[in-house]
Write a structure and sequence with these properties.
51% of the residues lie in helices and 0% in strands. By secondary structure, the chain is mostly helical. The longest helix is centred in the C-terminal third of the chain and has 14 residues. The radius of gyration is 13 Å and the shape is globular.
Length: 84
């Protein structure tokens, strides 16, 4: 499915969980647990500061990379600095 369709672009712009599945689903061999969706929703929230805590190998880095790529694709920021 081509992403040139305006309705699809609007849908994934409004729903980052859907965007994650459409754009990065090939990177995930297992089904995503609910807390992954909660993390994505927290990043999309209007809160200025958000802290994400999860167990080791909980896919925090993977989810953040994918989320930041999606945000960059939509031009929602010009510069990003990641501290690990």
């Amino acid at each position: 499915m081509a992403l040139s369709n305006e309705a699809i672009l609007r849908s994934i712009s409004n729903d980052r969980v859907l965007a994650s599945h459409m754009l990065f689903g090939h990177r995930h061999r297992q089904a995503s647990p609910k807390f992954h969706f909660d993390i994505i929703d927290l990043w999309r929230a209007q809160d200025e500061l958000v802290v994400i805590e999860a167990f080791r190998q909980g896919a925090k880095t993977t989810l953040s990379e994918e989320f930041l790529l999606t945000e960059a694709l939509f031009g929602n920021f010009r510069y990003c600095l990641i501290f690990v």
